[in-house]
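User: Second chain of the day. Same drill as before.
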Amino acid sequence: MTAAHIIYWMSPDQPISLADDLAARSDELLLDLLQARPDLASPPPPGVTVLAQRALSAASINRCGEDLDVLAVAVLETLDALRRASGGGPVAAAAIIEALSERAAPDAIGARIDSLVALALIWGPQEALQTGPHMPAAWPWRSPLATAPVNLLDLASIRAKIDGLGERERELLTTLSSGPGLGRTRDAALGPDSDRPVPQLVHQDMLVVVDEQTVELPVVIGQLLRDEDPAEPRSLRPPELTGGGGRKIGLGEVDAAAAGEALEFLRHSTDVLEALGVQPATVLRAGGMGVREIRRLTKVVSVDEKRMGLVLEVLSGLRLIDSGFPVPDVSDGLEPSWAPTTSTDSWIHQSPERRWYSIASAWIDLHRRPWQIGDRTPDGTIVGALVGAIPEGAARAERLLVLQALAEAKPGAAVTPTSLGRQIAWRHPRWIRRLPQATIAETLSEAQALGLVAHGALTSAGREIVAAGSAEDIETQTLGAMARSIPAPIDFFLAQADQTITAPGPLTPELTADLSLVADLESGGAASVYRVSEATVRRALDAGRTGTELLTFFTSHSKTPVPQSISYLIDDVARKHGQLRVGVAGSFIRCEDPTTLAAVLSSPVADALSLRALAPTVAVTSEPLIDVLERLRAAGFAPAGEDAEGELVDLRFRGARLPTPRERHSARKTSLSLPSRDRLGAVLTHMRSQDAANSATLVRPGKGGSSVTGGGLPATALLQKALNSKSTVRLGYVNAEGFASRHVVVPRLIGAGQVIAVEPGTDDEHRFSLHRITTVEMVD
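Assistant: Same format as last time:
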């Protein structure tokens, strides 16, 4: 949409109002305006005059300013400066282009002028552009950004000015650079002759005076003082997204590397859920999880504390872990604990790409920053996992800004954090102070850990997850992209003579479960290594497998011959396993070999369990079955559990669980829902109807016209007269919400307390309750 599409009936020398400008626009252009600035459409404005008033309000302009880039801001600042220089009169577009032509391409400046006209931030013909009194509300800060004197210099000159400052001046600027950049001081009104630091800095253009008691630090000076690497402030051209200069890689290699990271993060998440199910973590009195518990989990999962904090925060955001009193109670039950929720059992059986999508979506939607765990807040408090800092709505916006900026690079192209920061600063100047380079780097690090970014580039799945569209379409496209990136699961492995099992790719869920039962994972990833030991074989036998079944399992799934070291180990453990049988008496012990049972009864464990022999092959105890098994194993025996029918039973602990909270994480949230074009079309129709009603020509007194206020018999009589003569009337009407409006219509039917009418020249029917009609006026 461009300003050239608007037809003006007034000369450039005669300024027009924004209301007149909007009235001259076509329905298509007004729909574009309402779509770009949806706050103008709620509630539906009763005509273009009210629409113009809303568009000129400071609050609406401020919201619109969130989406302006640096060049658009520079156009507004230049227009404001030229208007003040001309005494507040209109400004020609050519003057703006000329003022900025050395800093940006003229075509780009003209395009920004057209877009600002389309947004109703400025209006009028190209020869006489105007703006409202609250236009500075669209600026990123209270002082000019692009047209500030310091931004007309290059970085080398600005650094030289900083290096030449005295100790007091530099300390003052450093203090301002660590905050929002605004400072309150009575020295702001002093002239350059003062020897105070603030007037001297103002005189050197290192500070900008906002009012008599407020100064603001130019953003580029703050960036340099924070040792950041900003773009040249004089240039208003968009910065390029550049890489580190290494070897070029393709999108396929990026996706493959990210898929490995994604699988690794899923494995760590599953391990954390299992660890918390076996031993829930105590909730601190202040909430959250303590450092001691986190360190315990890092040892179990074999990750560092930073990654553990990220895993915990994401699992909490996904509602897979929560705090409360888990069941069964594996602690003393006196204090709440962090444990998996019931959603865990269904989540771990989903496909890898679906589990990854839920993890990535939860991370994007987090209102906390996991990388801040362990840092200190401004008041000195340490930020803990799952607690310790107030949730910030900006955290989600930061991630989306970073990922969306990465998506603008060519697929597979690496982008450095510095280049990315410059791009974000140019497209979203309001975020320059909110989003320092350190935050961008940490966000990229987390995105890489989750498999959204690899080799400095956004993956195919990452591009889909931040794309525009409905939540359903985003989920479908993202799942498809990740499914193509993850290697197809395999149903085989390679058995080695050193009792290790190598999986050259991700295993099927069924094979993973069976292999994890008989072997321990030593290293994970896209290719993983497991180790078979006496303890793991006994674990499989305890779960009900037989030695023959285990040998068959290895023979059928190993692409290499099963080594003798593994087959001998299975035979040896299976021969000893289960000679002792433990049941419920409390519990009973039976053994087909009287000698083995006699050895048990003569050992110290017999006294500890209070064993009593019933027969040479049977003994009983009052202790629970699990305790008997554990104590016999600790004493060097190899018992197995059996049920009442004598069948082996799987007595592995499945983990404690908490109820899933009601606020479950569902499909990934998209940006704030915007009204559809059809709905905005209805708003526009209502607005046009109000304009037509307000401008309708009434029948003058003395020519048969009349006006009736109220909804009684006279109004009904006048409506009946219009019905009989097929005349047009203007109705004043108040709807059920108390919203007053006017309508120009032709009555078609009156009855049952309602008037059915159509707009002139259309067949669109409208229904009006008689008791809500306030006025009836005949129209010429």
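DSSP finds 30 helices and 25 strands in the chain.

User: Great, on to the next one.
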